[in-house]
């Protein structure tokens, strides 16, 4: 069975623990998945900035080398489970626009962290509010065994990605 999963990301290696949890769960069920990594960002305010706005360029700007390396490692580790992985930006301002995005992208399941996402851009916003309030798809909240570090330590985040285990928090609002 094939399904499409949305992962809320802030482009940190830590957020890829959600991807690892989704792929591990799907692998044990014998499913193949398409994954959409999504980050919330407001569109530019000025018309000139909008003229030169490029989603692809902004995604390249937001994804660091550690994040990209971790994505490649995950793709290699879960190549039998992971069919396609794409990155997207959501710029809607309402719950309705988020729900329509889920329908348009044919999302079956959403994985989100129990922690607050980091703001990686001046126009970033946290998608978790929209995720919590949607009733269009199944939501899975993952809590990691360790707390997020306050220091930026890419090595520690990579170690955590491959040697720690998250667990699904029972959701009462599905």
UniProtKB/TrEMBL annotation:
It comes from the Bacteria. This is Universal stress protein family protein. It comes from Reichenbachiella agariperforans.
């Amino acid at each position: 069975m094939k399904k499409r999963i949305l992962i809320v990301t802030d482009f940190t290696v830590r957020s890829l623990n959600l991807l690892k949890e989704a792929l591990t769960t799907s692998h044990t069920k014998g499913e193949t998945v398409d994954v959409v990594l999504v980050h919330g960002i407001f569109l530019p305010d000025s018309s000139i900035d909008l003229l030169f706005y490029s989603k692809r360029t902004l995604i390249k700007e937001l994804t660091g080398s550690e994040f990209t390396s971790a994505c490649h490692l995950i793709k290699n580790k879960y190549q039998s489970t992971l069919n396609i992985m794409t990155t997207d930006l959501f710029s809607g301002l309402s719950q309705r626009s988020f729900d329509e995005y889920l329908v348009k992208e044919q999302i079956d399941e959403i994985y989100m962290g129990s922690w607050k996402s980091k703001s990686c851009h001046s126009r970033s916003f946290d998608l978790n509010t929209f995720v919590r309030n949607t009733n269009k798809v199944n939501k899975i909240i993952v809590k990691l065994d360790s707390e997020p570090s306050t220091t930026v330590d890419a090595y520690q985040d990579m170690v955590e990605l491959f040697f720690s285990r998250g667990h699904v928090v029972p959701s009462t609002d599905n």
